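Below is our example:

___
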Amino acid sequence: MKKLLACLLCATGSAGAAESFVLDPGHTFPSFEIRHQSVSFMRGKFNRSQGRVVLDPAGTGSRIEVSVDAASGDTGHAGLNQKLLGSPFFNVAQFPEIHFVSSDVTFKDGKPVSANGTLTLLGVSRPLTLDIRDYACTRQFLTLRPLCGADVHASLKRSDFGMTWGIPLIGDEVNLAIEVEGVRE
């Protein structure tokens, strides 16, 4: 998921004008949670992502494109990381990137609230809708460049992408939560 959901929400909210943002990899955190043994949740994140967002609240020019480096997956447990990055799960040797590209972005009161698009994981492409929450903009502290961010959520079934190892002891539904910040180009 190397640049995946990370360029989701980054416009200053200027009425009618399309704006382009580059995701800040130091402030963008794609994370996931999945049911483990039907008793708890296992959580992890991806440490490297990149992307670009163009938001056009007045037209159809909006576009979100994010790539996530699948090998940067991190659960905080070295043995589990090794298993997740191997062939039963992310198979990073064969599929080093997870990619999301939007097909449309929905706005409410000039702010993005959702994005429909395609997620490519393990070489399989499927539709995915991103729920965009808490979208806000400001200016960077030192450079005063426009900076926008949001809290993005989505759910998917890993089996839809061919990741079936361990079901049902390891859940099929994966919840995504992505903290995103982007700086205007």
The chain has one domain: 5-184. The longest helix spans residues 78-85. The radius of gyration is 16 Å. Confidence is low (pLDDT under 50) at residues 1-15.
